[in-house]
Design goal:
2 domains, about 40% helix, about 350 residues, globular, 11 strands, Nucleotidyltransferase, domain 5, alpha/beta, 5-stranded mixed beta sheet
Length: about 350
């Protein structure tokens, strides 16, 4: 009997993660690195489709030529599209149009659905899918109010990894996922902190631009007077690049890597120590705000993402928030696993695929 497998695609800014999963877990994976010099020739993200697809097809051809698997599904990370309630979605023409145009935002993950659609055709599949795209559509109405009627708070973060990690903690706590009340912090290149109730992200900061703690290269929330001054002294594209790519650790210390910051601190660099302390402090304050938003009833605080690997950071953060409720740490990302599981839930009839 030929084993069944799904292809999982997760594009990043300078690489594309590709893997094959069976129902039992990962079969084989590859992080395909892309030369920055090649990407610079194709500045618009959607136009990188053919370049990345060629490399992915080579990887899949080489692996599948030596292993007997029937490809039963293809799934790509969803990218920035219109706010969605979450779950597994069929990738429709409208989804592809919004991801390709960058209508709701430009991000490498927008390529996930475009790549999945092309691979669907290659393997003669009727459908391809995405799971828990970046834009959150379950925010409380009261959480969307900003204080200025023409400015609406939006939630863009890491729901794919957040919900996957929440499911793991729910199993540990023996709580049905539909009854969970968690605060989840995904800490990596972007920082998103959310309140998850009954399996839905009811509030989350905009991890891409404009809210929450600063990150390795993003500005986070800022004093309005300073923002106004920037906007009158620079063009809109310059301000956007500064706040989304050239702020945070990178602006203060010249590095986007927390490990470098830790080394600088160990060498007695007082500025590095101050920025590290401020980073922990801002993350802790954001978690504290969401704990109050849960009416102090959150069943757990869950920390995930790449920065969660850093013990010194975790120890400092726990000194602030560890007494509030149960505290869990799941370093790294579960995005590939989450994408695969979402598709198998649909294929096996455990979940209905949603329409965009």
């Amino acid at each position: 009997m030929i084993n069944e497998a799904v292809i999982v695609i997760n594009p990043g800014s300078t690489s594309t993660k590709v893997a094959l999963y069976s129902r039992q877990g990962e079969l084989h994976a590859q992080n395909i690195e892309h030369e920055q010099s090649e990407l610079d020739k194709i500045p618009r993200i959607a136009d990188q489709l053919d370049y990345r697809l060629t490399l992915i097809k080579t990887f899949l051809r080489d692996y599948l030529s030596q292993h007997s698997f029937k490809i039963v599904g293809v799934v790509g990370r969803g990218g920035i599209v219109k706010p969605l309630s979450g779950g597994t979605y069929r990738i429709s023409p409208d989804f592809l149009d919004d991801a390709s145009s960058g209508k709701y935002g430009e991000h490498a993950s927008n390529l996930g659905s475009l790549l999945a659609n092309r691979l669907k055709e290659l393997y003669n599949l009727d459908e391809c899918y995405t799971v828990d795209p970046v834009s959150v559509g379950n925010m409380w109405a009261k959480a969307e109010i900003s204080g200025v009627p023409d400015i609406v708070r939006i939630g863009r973060g890491h729901p794919l990894n957040m919900k996957m990690t929440a499911r793991k903690v729910a199993r540990l706590q023996q709580i049905p996922f539909s009854e969970t009340n968690y605060i989840i912090g995904h800490l990596g290149g972007g920082i998103s902190i959310s309140l998850v109730q009954a399996g839905k992200l009811v509030d989350i900061n905009d991890g891409l631009l404009g809210m929450g703690p600063f990150s390795p290269n993003r500005a986070g929330s800022l004093p309005l007077r300073g923002v106004m001054k920037l906007c009158y002294s620079m063009t809109e594209p310059e301000v956007k690049t500064l706040l989304s790519k050239n702020s945070g650790f990178k602006a203060y210390l010249g590095t986007e890597d927390l490990r470098d910051v830790i080394k600088m601190m160990a060498q007695g660099d007082k500025k590095a120590q101050l920025i590290f302390d401020a980073f922990v402090y801002q993350v802790a304050k954001e978690i504290g705000a969401y704990y109050v938003a849960s009416k102090c009833e959150a069943q757990a605080i869950i920390i995930t993402g790449g920065i969660a690997h850093n013990k010194q950071f975790i120890d400092e953060l726990k000194s602030y928030v560890g007494k509030l409720t149960a505290f869990y740490v799941f370093p790294g990302e579960n995005e590939m696993e989450a994408l695969a599981e979402g598709v198998f839930r649909v294929i096996d009839g455990e979940e209905e695929a949603q329409e965009y």
